[in-house]
Amino acid sequence: MFETHRLYLVLMIFSLLGPLLYSFKRPVYFVNRWKDVVVASLAMMAIFVPWDIAFTAKGVWYFNHDYTIGMDVWHLPLEEWMFFLVIPFACVFVYEVMNHMVRINIREAVLPFFYVTYGLITFILSFVFHDQVYTLVACGLAAALSLTAAFLKPSWSGKFLRMYIVIWIPFLIVNGILTGAVTKNPVVGYNAQEIIGLRIHTIPVEDSIYNFSMLFIVVAVYEYLKSRRLKNTL
């Protein structure tokens, strides 16, 4: 079932399908947010795509073409380009659904503690494991973003954290599949010399930190676009 060159493509399609179909349902009516999500994703991609291309070229990670359709653009499979649009779209959809329908909020007092603690932990990891390039870059960026959030206290930081906690379930499923949880070989493999080696089942711990930074940037730009649009309507 999973041993197919369409695996990565099918995984992206299924990740997109639910949020896409439910985008037309009220009260969220997420279709009105599509443009902002795409722009926010493109802003994130300005950082993450060069990073991805450089790490692929350097051999920090690699893509197993037994599980892709074989179309590469700048050394990245077409499915990897889809990843940078599909995953933010799905996660911002979850973010907006929770904002509309969930009344449980993270206490304000918890937020500085989390962002400072997460920032310090990732900073220490980037320092201690500076010879592992994936650990260094992923943790360094996460530390900068987290400590910035602790200092600036954006109004959406609690809603972002709530979403980030919830999307751990799909994160474990999607990244688990990509890193070999259900296949003979991983779709995405990692150079053991460039990571700590600590894994959540098959997922390098760096991937969860990478995911934090990717989604943080997307939500930050998305919220900026929302606030600007709101000001223009006043």
Give your account of this protein's structure.
The chain is mainly alpha-helical and 234 residues long. The protein has one domain. It has a two-stranded antiparallel sheet with strand order 1-4. A two-stranded antiparallel sheet has the order 2-3. Strands 5-6 form a two-stranded antiparallel sheet. A hairpin with a 2-residue loop joins β5 and β6. The longest helix has 29 residues. It is globular and about 50 Å long. The model has no long low-confidence stretch (mean pLDDT 96).
Quick take:
The protein is mostly helical and 234 residues long.
List the helices and strands and how they pair.
Blueprint: H1 7-22, H2 34-58, E1 61-63, E2 72-73, E3 76-77, H3 78-101, H4 110-128, H5 133-152, H6 157-166, H7 168-178, E4 188-190, E5 199-200, E6 203-204, H8 205-233
Antiparallel strand pairs: 1-4, 2-3, 5-6
Helix pairs in contact: 1-3, 2-3, 2-8, 3-6, 4-5, 5-8
Reading the helices and strands in chain order gives HHEEEHHHHHEEEH
**What is the number of independent domains?**
1
- Assess the beta-strand content as a share of residues: 5-15%
* Rg for CA atoms: 18 Å
Count of separate DSSP helical elements: 8
Mean pLDDT, to the nearest integer, reads: 96
Order of strands across the widest beta sheet? 1-4
> What coarse outline follows from CA principal-axis ratios?
globular
What would you call the structural class? mainly alpha
Q: What's the main sheet like?
A: 2 strands, antiparallel
The strand count comes to 6
Low-confidence stretches: none
For the terminal residues, how far apart are their CA atoms?
Answer: 53 Å
Helical residues, percent: 55-70%
